[in-house]
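Last lecture ended with a question: if I hand you only a sequence, what can you say about the shape of the protein? Today we answer it with a concrete record. The protein is High affinity nitrate transporter 2.5. Below, first the input exactly as provided, then the predicted structure, then a couple of comments.
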Amino acid sequence: MTGGGGNVGAVVAQLVFFRGSRFSSETGISLMGAVIIACTFSVAFIFFPQWGGMLCGPRKGCLAEDYYAAEWSEEEKSKGFHLQSLKFAENTRSERATAGASRTINDGII
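The predicted structure:
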């Protein structure tokens, strides 16, 4: 969240809180801090079914492969268009080093 909006947020914060004489520097810094806290609070509610979120764990039986394969129709899957998505899902699982079994492309299940 910070990386995506950091540059734009910095410019907007400078314009809103520090340009002109509307706010003193101390008030501008306090208001900017309140806005940062309010915006960051929303991040707690982001939830990915296969990984979970800050407030709860992943859904039982939901695998990254299922999550990414759901984007593809059966026709697209029969043509193999979804294989790169499954490789990505497998890579995300291996980078997270989570315990537990997961289906892989090499298992012949998918």
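Comments.
1. Residues 2-45 form one domain.
2. The radius of gyration is 21 Å.
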